[in-house]
Amino acid sequence: IFLYKKAKDISKKLLESFRARVMASSQRSWSLSSLPLDMIEEIFHRTPAESLLRSKPTCKKWYDLIKNKRFIYEHLRRSPGRSLRTDERRFLRIDQTVQIMEPVTRTRSEKPIPHELQPLENIKAMVHCDGLMLCLCSDMESGIVHLALWNPLTRHITLIQPSTRFTTSDYYGIGHGVNKYRDGYKILRFSDRRYDNYHHHHHSEVDFEIYYCETSSWRTLVDAKVDWNVDFTCHGVSVMGNMYWLAHRDVEEEEELESCIIGFDFTAEKFMDVCLCPSIFDYNYLSCFGGDRLSLLQQNHDEPSLIEVWVSSKLADDGGDVSFTKYFSVVSSDLPWLHLDRSEDASHPVYYIAKNKRIIAWCEGMMDDGDRLPVWIILYEIDEDGVRNQLETERHYEYDYVGTFLCGYVYVPSLVPLP
Q1: Cis link prior to 119 (omega < 30° from 0)?
Q2: Which helix (H) or strand (E) holds 363?
Q3: Which of 376, 355, 298 is nearest to 331 (CA)?
Q4: Which residue numbers delimit the F-box domain (predicted)?
């Protein structure tokens, strides 16, 4: 009776306590395992994915439930990390290891880099969707580019085979249709030839195509036409199954660039004009907000003491009627540079907007240390009054440091299986 009344309020700590009791005493094992399956399922829906993964070997009934696809997608739908109430968001970054930071507890874990993603310098970008990471890897010497789909929690990974070949000028997105459980995930590929030194050798190469994960097949988008270029610093954000990018288009009458948000609808399988951007600063970063909106963080090169945060209205399926509203501004002389240029590398912050108008960011910074310039990896908490907290998580020197935040992202761990 007690468990029945408390099922809706049970937390991770309570579940771990139950599990410890089960493992410690076989005489008590009947008490939890004998609960009705729907009761156990309700408890598990409110349990973090990491704890569920550790619980799979506990008993066969739990194992069968946790690996069930219907349960996995319902757990994902109800995940607290998809809202602003309870935070399960993580920062994921690849340097010499896979580093996962829990911003709330300020704890960091490290795991080996999957051998499919090695060597280290080949990892160029990642895009996140439902706990799955779409990773772009390239070999600068051979020009070979690989694409991999990876679940960092379950450690499962698979390489995506190209229809012809991948190039370093490709952009990628990942999403799904209205029913992802039935239709599966899709990957979009399109090319930006501004930065491809070898494009003149590949005139016949497809510019727009979709990969269907369930059937491992590609389809060319013959009618896809765009009049914009993606901001080369933006790797895209997947929200509610669709992809979004910062982009620029020429305005011939005014002879200037117009900044906008463009998207790709994976249900209709077409690009969409979402909205114009607020006044663009030198550095602009796009992220998800509240599970169904976008956030835009801005900082100028000549005015680092000012950060502006904008939040969009709820995203519509057709991309229409979306606008940005200024959420809050931070004006403080102690604000860090969230963008860092290191010789040929450019570092971008991994960030999200938390409740009570706070910026949680994990980024690089450099400080003068005599003859050497150490690179600091710092976790910042910034509110309207400035830097509220900061934590140095690493320190490197340029000559022995090759990692960048180009391959960092915010993600919510999930049990979603690879196709």
Answers
A1: yes
A2: strand 358-366
A3: 298
A4: 29-76
Cβ(319)–Cβ(344) under 8 Å?
no
DSSP run (H or E) holding 54: helix 49-55
The DSSP result for 16-29, as a single string, is: HHHHHHHHH-GGGH
376 close to 366: Cβ distance less than 8 angstroms: yes
Query: Is the Cα torsion angle 99, 152, 96, 366 positive or negative in sign?
Result: negative
Residue type at 80 in one-letter notation: P
Least Cα distance to 321 among 278, 274, 288 occurs for: 274
pLDDT digits (tens, 9 = 90+) for 360-370: 999 887 666 66
> Can you read off the two tokens belonging to residue 47?
């349990």
Classified as helix, coil or strand, 33 is helix
Cα distance between residue 337 and residue 316, in whole Å? 33
Pairing of strands 293-299, 306-312: antiparallel
Q: How far apart are CA 419 and CA 70, in angstroms?
A: 15
- 60's enclosing H/E stretch is helix 60-66
Half-sphere exposure (Cβ direction) of 163: Cα atoms closer than 13 Å: 18
Rounded-to-integer distance, Cα 349 and Cα 365, Å: 10
- 172 neighbors 166 (Cβ within 8 angstroms): no
Q: Tell me: the pLDDT tens digits for 91-134?
A: 998 877 888 999 989 999 998 888 888 765 667 778 899 999 99
**Helix, coil or strand: residue 370:** coil
| Cα distance between residue 79 and residue 86, in whole Å | 9
What is d(CA 394, CA 379) in angstroms, rounded to the nearest whole number? 10
Beta strands 170-176 and 358-366, pairing class: unpaired
Reported pTM: 0.84
